[in-house]
Design goal:
Blueprint lengths: L12 E3 L7 E2 L9 E5 L2 E5 L5 E5 L4 E12 H4 L3 E2 L4 E2 L6 H8 L7 E4 L5 E6 L5 E6 L2 E11 L4
Antiparallel strand pairs: 1-2, 1-9, 3-6, 4-5, 6-12, 7-8, 9-10, 10-12, 11-12
């Protein structure tokens, strides 16, 4: 009989091209996750009050990953805030946000807790995390995945 009482193995990771050390999280995002599908359509009114819509861009999905109990090693372990450098052989969420794939820059691959891979980028220009316990952090990361063409 299988023991189903143990903690789930963390499968969540970020990877990028170019030989960058991947970020393999020690904990998965909290479940259930949040996913928002955006149409890429903007609606507005003419001066005469008539509503019209136009395609502003491709449709996309926003993944809100909520982490609880993220170890400091995953959050900012080995990152030097003064020099914005990551310690060799280590990786952290802060380094990904500042150096590897900052908002508005190159994308990366997000592997979700179920093994699916998504080509994403950071959707927001901030990380908001709190120190929730001794060496543990909690907060959210919002990732954007383009799902269709214009």
């Amino acid at each position: 009989m299988d023991d189903m009482t143990g903690p789930a193995i963390a499968e969540t990771s970020f990877t990028a091209a170019g030989g960058i050390v991947p970020l393999n999280f020690s904990v998965n995002p909290s479940y259930p996750g949040k996913f928002l599908l955006q149409s890429g359509i903007a609606r507005t009114l003419t001066e005469g009050g008539t509503e019209y819509a136009y395609r502003k861009g491709a449709f996309y999905g926003l993944y809100t990953l909520s982490f609880e109990g993220m170890p400091a090693a995953d959050f900012d372990g080995g990152f030097d805030y003064k020099t914005s450098a990551q310690a060799e052989g280590t990786q952290s969420l802060v380094n990904w946000f500042v150096n590897v794939a900052p908002p508005g820059a190159a994308g990366f691959t997000y592997k979700d807790p179920f093994g699916s891979e998504h080509a994403v980028s950071f959707a927001e220009d901030k990380l908001e995390f709190s120190l929730t316990d001794n060496g543990l952090y909690g907060g959210t990361v919002v990732l954007k995945e383009i799902l269709g063409g214009i």
